[in-house]
Amino acid sequence: MSRIVNIGLVQMSCVDDVEANFDAAIGGIREAAERGAQIVCLQELFKSRYFPLVVDRKYFSLAEAVNADSPSIRQLGEVAAEMEIVIISSHFEKRATGLFHNTAVAIDADGSYLGKYRKMHIPDDPLYYEKFYFTPGDLGYKCFSTRYAEVGVLVCWDQWFPEAARLTALRGAEIIFIPTAIGFTSEALSPSGDDYPQSWQIVQQGHAAANVCYLAAVNRVGHEENQAGEGGILFWGQSFIADPNGIVVAKASAEQPEVLVHPVDLDRIKEIRDAYCYPFRDRRVDSYAGLSELYIDDSH
Questions:
Q1: Which structural domains are found in the chain, ordered by start?
Q2: What is the pLDDT of residues 157-166, one digit of tens each?
Q3: Of 33, 35, 245, 248, whose CB neighbour count within 10 A is largest?
Q4: So which residues are the catalytic ones?
């Protein structure tokens, strides 16, 4: 018998009002659940505009404790229990004074808090000033056993690193969810820039195919201005789901908020792995020592 699970992705445009964003996210979760979704994922930092557009200490006030007793987690847990769905959500975590993380949370279908993953790879580019705000994660790569599936979670910049997806899959993930906030900076809006969304999608399709699992990436959408006068970012949306062959089976709008719901058959993972005996049987772990090096220079 097939193990069919319905995935829901809530692609949003955010506003200045944090409560309004939270309410919109809850609305999107409810819509996804009403359309049959059993696991619903929100985009990266869904409660606010993408504040790393600018370096400004005032945004540390957006951070919150992330644990089972946090108000946001409790509220999401109540919705999860009511709708009997798993929720993956993304938060600006205050761990201690002066110590912050970009953190994703897994909540099970009974409303229970399963744990968190802290974003490991932190970018520092124009209008993506994340190193000012976030300390790299220290919890390792995670897989959460939920009512409906074994769920792995990465966050945004992690999506460019095959090692992150592989280690998540090695922990048993059947679906890797990636909340993200990615788009064109104003300076990058050019005809050649059209290739970047394709690269973003292709590399993640590769993670799904290489690890024989489903991958679901949920992005924000719309233009957000940098109030410091440095332009802004046009988030390109296009949230998508890739199957264990790396084929995109569902994709959202590039321009509009959207709740994307699509069924996936988890038994396809076993079928493909049994048929082709990858991704794990033929790994040469004895030959991968170089992966622990930042760079390999054989020129001397």
A1: 4-281 (3.60.110.10)
A2: 999 999 999 9
A3: 33
A4: 44, 119, 156
